[in-house]
Recover the amino acids of this structure.
């Protein structure tokens, strides 16, 4: 590179664009800074004229987003010129080092020979024979793409930590991992490795560590915002804080290497029922390339922690398919035993049917395995066959016992020389209950793929649907969908959406036999966890609609979880679970998990540019739409409240005062 600079007689300039962006309030957005650099040094226009034109362009582009956005960009332009420096180029090339290898030398062969070359921009050099012939790619390759996209990263203060698990639960990129282990495991630990006594009773010799994978951190700041533990001496310091990466990177690399040698927590001994326990489950979705602070990925990570080692995912086209499976890497991975989710992407219009095909195929394989096992019972042992066929498979301990029985069955089958034994071996893993999930965004679920989704719900099969609801077509540029709320601005709704969002949940509830939940991790993480577990255990179709904040909403996603909380507090996003199983035990199947609205809708909405921009460009229309939206929110919450009361037999239409009911 130095040689080329000298040969071409280039002038060489540098700027710390990230620092300028941070200091002027633009966060990670450096486009204005770099645009100013180009015109300042290129001479395309006289410098003063170029700066004037840039500011006119900023006002035109960002004026609808509010005066504050325009002001910050103006300040970035002014600060840029003061931070732009020309490097004095020497007469000869002096570089004494080569680029670091793209992946470690101990990476798997496929990663070294195929993935690494793609990461280096040399994928065109690959031979056809090096590409998997059946289209399947190894999982877990995102762990080798150390993107180092942020100079600021999250760091842990063990002495302040309450070990609640909130930070790892909310982390969009699976950067935060927790383990507990006997103190003897610390022998040989790096001097800077952090740990603390586990704060549960009766475990005096057990230590707790929270490890941050710094090279994968995007510095979104969500972990800092959800952390409840403040320093008693300095309220501005928490158990998790953002700090410069460079001074600690080398020591943290050593700490990560040691942390990876610690034993993964035994799933059978982890409490799945609360957020604190779930932090000890290994995520099988990690280090995706999703936007910093993404609102979708924490739900996928949770899904992988709870069910990933026996999960099949049918993923609709959209954001979740782009960060979920775009070459050269995939964030879906596997555990130490080599088990993990099987993932595939299908089209917008047929993903639900694609996922239903997963279920039908798995059911057919199970039917075949069951039939063959009954036939071979005398040869493999009647007691083993009966225990496998009759085993309950809901709780983790039950699944673990079933796996052990299936492993024993495999050993006995390999000793039997028969066609039936070989056939059973080919499908024997289906004797462990499969978890089938259909995943996609609101553009798929509410719009283009809705016909298929409705068809799958009506089929009454044991299949789970997760809708990552960003309320807009996020991946294709921010077009309005049927999930876009009344009054919000989006492409094709530039003057504010004029109709309320479609109530997909109520439509599904109308079937009566579909498990339905509406969740928001930032508002009530425990309810989110409970809904995921109930949906998967329900022996029929289930639908989870998950509030997913998005950059298209127009605010700093560091506060994404807080904004989710405000959405629920305003009544806009009520939390509920409809579980048909409860009716069988004489209980109300509809549970309203969030309280009555505590704040007006505007206290939530006007934190976001998608609402606030209309208030700037057309205040009268914005006020009218917000009034209508407030009425819709109030009436919708009453509707859910009435549903909960009527189902339980506690509501009487002639009651004097609807609002006095408890």
């Amino acid at each position: 590179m130095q040689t080329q600079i000298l040969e071409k007689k280039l002038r060489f300039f540098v700027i710390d664009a990230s620092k300028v962006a941070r200091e002027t309030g633009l966060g990670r957005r450096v486009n204005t800074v770099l645009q100013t650099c180009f015109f300042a040094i290129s001479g395309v226009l006289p410098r003063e004229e170029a700066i004037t034109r840039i500011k006119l362009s900023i006002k035109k582009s960002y004026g609808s987003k509010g005066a504050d956005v325009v002001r910050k960009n103006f300040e970035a332009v002014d600060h840029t010129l003061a931070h732009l420096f020309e490097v004095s180029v020497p007469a000869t090339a002096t570089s004494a080092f080569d680029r670091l290898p793209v992946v470690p030398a101990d990476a798997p062969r496929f990663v070294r020979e195929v993935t690494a070359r793609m990461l280096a921009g040399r994928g065109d050099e690959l031979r056809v024979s090096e590409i998997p012939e059946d289209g399947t790619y190894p999982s877990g390759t995102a762990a080798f793409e150390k993107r180092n996209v942020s100079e600021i990263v999250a760091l842990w203060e063990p002495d302040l930590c309450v070990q609640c698990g909130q930070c790892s639960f909310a982390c969009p990129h699976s950067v935060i991992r927790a383990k507990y282990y006997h103190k003897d495991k610390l022998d040989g630990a790096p001097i800077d490795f952090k740990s603390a006594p586990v704060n549960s009773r009766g475990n005096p010799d057990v230590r707790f560590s929270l490890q941050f994978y710094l090279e994968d951190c995007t510095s979104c700041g969500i972990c800092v915002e959800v952390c409840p533990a403040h320093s008693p001496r300095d309220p501005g310091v928490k158990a998790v804080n953002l700090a410069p990466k460079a001074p600690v990177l080398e020591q943290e690399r050593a700490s990560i290497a040691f942390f990876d040698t610690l034993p993964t927590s035994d799933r059978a001994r982890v409490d799945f029922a609360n957020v604190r326990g779930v932090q000890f489950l290994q995520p099988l979705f990690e280090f995706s390339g999703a936007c910093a602070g993404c609102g979708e990925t924490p739900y996928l990570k949770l899904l992988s922690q709870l069910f990933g080692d026996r999960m099949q995912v049918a993923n609709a086209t959209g954001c979740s398919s782009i960060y979920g499976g775009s070459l050269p890497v995939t964030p879906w991975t596997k555990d130490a035993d080599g088990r993990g989710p099987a993932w595939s992407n299908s089209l917008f219009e047929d993903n639900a049917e694609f996922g239903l095909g997963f279920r039908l195929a798995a059911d057919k394989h199970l039917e075949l395995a069951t039939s063959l096992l009954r036939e071979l019972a005398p040869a493999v042992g009647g007691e083993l066959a009966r225990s496998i066929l009759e085993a309950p498979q809901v709780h983790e301990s039950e699944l673990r016992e079933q796996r052990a029985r299936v492993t024993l069955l495999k050993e006995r089958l390999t000793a039997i020389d028969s066609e039936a034994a070989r056939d059973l071996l080919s499908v024997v893993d289906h004797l462990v209950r499969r978890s089938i999930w259909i995943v996609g965004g609101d553009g798929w679920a509410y719009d283009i793929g809705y016909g298929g989704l409705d068809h799958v719900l009506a089929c009454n099969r044991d299949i789970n649907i997760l809708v990552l609801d960003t309320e807009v077509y996020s991946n294709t540029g921010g077009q309005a969908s049927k999930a876009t709320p009344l009054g919000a601005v989006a492409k094709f709704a530039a003057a504010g959406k004029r109709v309320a969002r479609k109530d997909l949940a109520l439509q599904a509830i109308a079937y009566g036999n579909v498990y339905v939940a509406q969740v928001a991790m930032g508002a009530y993480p425990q309810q989110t966890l409970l809904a995921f577990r109930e949906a998967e255990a329900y022996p029929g179709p289930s639908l989870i609609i998950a509030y997913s904040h998005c950059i298209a909403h127009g605010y700093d996603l560091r506060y994404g979880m807080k904004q989710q909380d405000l959405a629920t507090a305003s009544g806009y996003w009520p939390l509920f679970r409809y579980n048909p199983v409860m009716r069988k035990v004489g209980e109300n199947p509809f549970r309203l998990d969030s309280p009555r609205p505590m704040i007006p809708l505007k206290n939530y909405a006007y934190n976001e540019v998608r609402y606030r921009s209309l208030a700037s460009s057309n205040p009268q229309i914005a006020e009218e739409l917000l009034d209508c939206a407030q009425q819709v929110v109030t009436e919708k919450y009453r509707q859910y409240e009435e549903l909960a009361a009527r189902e339980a037999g506690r509501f009487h239409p002639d009651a004097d005062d609807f609002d006095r009911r408890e």
